[in-house]
Amino acid sequence: MTTLRTRRFASRAALDAALVERLAQAIGDNSGGGSAVMLSGGRTPMPAYRELAARSPKHNDGLRILFSDERYVPSTSDASNYRQSRELLDALALPEAAVLRVRTELPLEQAAEDYERRLAAVLDAKVPIGLGLLGLGPDGHTASLFRAADLERARGRLAIAVQRPDGMEGVTVTPEFLAHVKQLVFVVAGGGKYEAIQGLIREDPDLIAWRAVQGVPSVELWVEQAALSSLMA
């Protein structure tokens, strides 16, 4: 059974500061040798990524960086989650093999299969995924899992190709992969997400984001207070 713990932050600055500290801790954790951290895309975590990059963070020797999802665009595109995270990645200066980006230069289905193989290799090597970040869309989606049909196609898979409602294609991790993340955190800020946030807090069984984390014993929701009160004024 999945339990949800909610942390409310009085300001966006407080949320960003807490996220920087959590990321720094996860990236530098040497308690079990190598580890992995899953980054999410979108605008919300980017200030924390930039702040952490400016600190020249120390990392454990076996660190791997993963991504929750990726739009099917060139890795140099401003729409790419990988591209948006490059400031942090450059600061970490990891070997190329330690950054598991979605290879969007491949055909879409091959890109998903390739990403799934590399995620499976991380799990087979028993590399702990200490921290995973997720966003929450106004429609209640997370990663690039938008529909019940996506969840159905994801059964038994670690990554799948998806057709996004915005007309773009993408690759996303699946609930089966998320079940391997030790600390899974939804990070939510900004307006327009009140209903989705409330659905997550209520543990709405119809909410895609909640259904996606049902294999995870404990999940955290970090939310800026303004996002909780945006429709309550």
Description:
With 233 residues, the chain is an alpha/beta fold. It has helices spanning 12-28, 46-54, 81-84, 86-92, 108-124, 148-153, 175-178, 194-201, 208-212, 225-229; strands at 3-9, 36-39, 64-67, 69-71, 129-134, 159-163, 169-173, 181-188, 218-224. Helix 2 (46-54) links the parallel strand 2 (36-39) and strand 3 (64-67). The chain is globular, with a radius of gyration of 16 Å. The mean pLDDT is 94.
Key words describing this protein structure:
three-stranded antiparallel β-sheet, 21% strand, 10 helices, alpha/beta, Rossmann fold, six-stranded parallel β-sheet, 233 residues, 9 strands
Can you describe this structure in just a few lines?
With 233 residues, the chain is an alpha/beta fold. The protein contains 10 helices and 9 strands.
Show unreliable segments.
none
Strand arrangement, largest sheet? 1-9-8-5-2-3
- Counting DSSP E segments of at least 2 residues, the number of strands comes to 9
Within the CATH hierarchy, at the fold level, what is the topology?
Answer: Rossmann fold
Work out the helix count. 10
Class by helix and strand content? alpha/beta
| Multimer state | single chain
Distance between the termini: 34 Å
Which value, in Å, is the CA radius of gyration?
A: 16 Å
| % residues in beta strands | 15-25%
Element-level helix/strand string: EHEHEEHHHEHEEHEHHEH
Could you tell me the mean pLDDT? 94
